[in-house]
């Protein structure tokens, strides 16, 4: 037989679980989704500006795990232009255009700040 004894209350745990069940953290995720879009828009190399203006985000919940997906809708011949800029691509004339890593530097501070804000939110719950 197992006996469990405890002292005190579960008030803090209950408060945290109630806050999480109400999804109060969704506002923080939306805030950083929008900040990420702005950071990507600013960091995207601009020729016509279409790729820079084509950023959006989506928050997904998969089995209780929330994720932010930043997406770019600009396509050329069915290929995502943001990916071509990031990783490079071959041309129709046999040349290679080297990629420019602009996504990672743009989102790095977003990730750091988001992690800090979400941790503070969890601690306050």
Your description of this structure?
Helix content is 46%, strand content 21%. It is an alpha+beta fold and 125 residues long. It has a domain at 13-74 and 102-124. Strand 1 (55-62) and strand 2 form a beta hairpin. Helix 2 packs antiparallel against helix 4 (103-124).
Quick summary of this structure?
With 125 residues, the chain is an alpha+beta fold. It is built from 4 helices and 6 strands; from the N terminus they run ααββββαββα.
> How would you sum up the global shape?
elongated
Largest beta-sheet details? 2 strands, antiparallel
The low-pLDDT segments are none
- Beta-strand segment tally: 6
Rg over CA atoms:
21 Å
What distance separates the N and C termini?
A: 34 Å
How many helical elements? 4
What is the averaged pLDDT score?
A: 88
Main sheet: strand order:
1-2
Summing up helix and strand content along with how strands pair, one would put the structural category as alpha+beta
Helical amount among residues, as a percent range? Answer: 40-55%
In percent terms, what proportion of residues is strand? Answer: 15-25%
Helix-strand string: HHEEEEHEEH
């Amino acid at each position: 037989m197992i006996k469990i004894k405890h002292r005190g209350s579960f008030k803090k745990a209950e408060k945290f679980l109630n806050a999480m069940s109400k999804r109060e953290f969704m506002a923080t995720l939306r805030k950083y989704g929008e900040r990420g879009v702005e950071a990507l828009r600013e960091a995207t190399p601009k020729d016509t500006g279409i790729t820079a203006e084509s950023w959006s985000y989506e928050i997904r919940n998969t089995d209780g795990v929330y994720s932010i997906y930043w997406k770019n809708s600009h396509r050329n011949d069915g290929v995502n232009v943001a990916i071509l800029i990031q990783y490079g691509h071959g041309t129709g004339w046999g040349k290679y255009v080297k990629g420019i890593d602009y996504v990672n530097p743009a989102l790095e501070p977003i990730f750091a700040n988001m992690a800090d804000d979400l941790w503070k939110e969890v601690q306050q719950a």
